[in-house]
Design goal:
The protein is α/β, with parallel strands linked by helices. 45% of the residues lie in helices and 12% in strands.
Amino acid sequence: MAISDRHAYADALAAGALHRPVCELLQCRYPLLLAGMGGVARSDLVSAVSRAGGFGLLGMVRETPELIDQEVAKVRAASTTSSFGVSIIPAATEPTLLNNQIAACVDLKAPAVCLFWDLSLPAIKRFRAAGILVICQVGSLEEAKAAQRAGAQVLVVQGMEAGGHVRGRRPLCELVLEVLGEVDIPVLVAGGLVDGRDVATYMALGAQGAMLGTALLATKESFAHEYHKQAILKATADDTILTQAFHINWPSGAAVRVLQNSVTRGEHGDPHAPEKRVIGAECDRPIYLFSTDSPLRSTTGNLEAMALYAGRGAERIRDLPGAAERIDRIVLDASEALFVPTEAVIEPIEVSSPVCYVAEMVREYLDLADEDAVLTALNDFLEAERAGLRVLLDTFALAGDQSLKAAAQALLPNTVKRCGALVSAIQDCHGRPSVLTGHAYQDAQKLPDFQERLKFIADSQVAWTKNLKGLLPRLPEGRLQNELREILILHDLKPLDPCG
């Protein structure tokens, strides 16, 4: 399929599968954000991402107001869209420069600003007062709740799988589910996400979209040095490491995820030794050994010893396309993973009577056909399905039995698709999809091994599918009935049963 045809197909498919409320807030077609990587995310990359339907963030950490002005002007000249913003990091910026950066963003009427690391209440207040959308990237539940209280309008939850500076120490899957249950503003995810399958999985768990770093660093428009890009293409699954060796220019105690090199192997001595050693230059500015600076196109010197940022999943990146092509691939793959076609005429499914477990949760709805009751039932079904997805992800990540891991991996695609189909059905009813995970997940966690957990979830899902069959005759014929019948067909094709 030609790139232009693939883009048109992806756009049409994503309109139903990927659209979330955050798209309206950010004024973008797809809920995919370019991470505001310092130095790397310049106007060429931001413009390409925004034109492709995503949301670009200029990486302006410690940059001058003049450069911010120039880069914003270039983005505006290259695209008619306002789906872009500026990323700054107050904790890593000298106060006078930070004040000037904030003033520049306000004067330029930047559509949005993304803040990272320590929460800056004064910055949030100034941006909100100026009508600028505030995005906060967070690494813990406490930080997420504090950001919402402070006035953040969008949260990006970063897991420990992320490349570059890593705020938290929790796996993304655990952290995002905690945050989703405690905040009521849009939540996006970041950390080790490189393809559409990754994006679809976390959207099925309740996130509204994703922030992409490594996947877009490895593109033609990225301002990263070619050495850095090629290092990512050669990476293996074991090549990234969390380290505090790269620390100059950043608050103390911060960890970064990088590709292993001579620095992470300890070949250059103590990273915290008092003397500074110059190993390169960025234009006229010296680059020090153990600095957080990553090599850019304009960087010279010992590139191997610099911070080569990369997230987990880098081993699945094997080419350097244009940013638009990368976005199109992710959109298409994520949409296909979440989308269930409903155009075909589907034969009626024999209705079974409700059974225990989930039946207790939804029995009161099954004799009702009003919209609110249907939406409540569908959200209960979504939460139950999401419980199964979480158990599958745990099994794939943590189980020692390779056959069980393989079984979990095989079951993931249809489970993600069923979650996506339920979200679409709820949105078609003008409802708000739940972001919660069913209590069956907590019940499953009490069981001693992964196989028992999978069997428990499988039994509970058999119950809710029977309840769904009981709901079908109480719905008017049309799109919603077809969507729900497709979900049942998917469940019959791949029931969540490790022994099935």
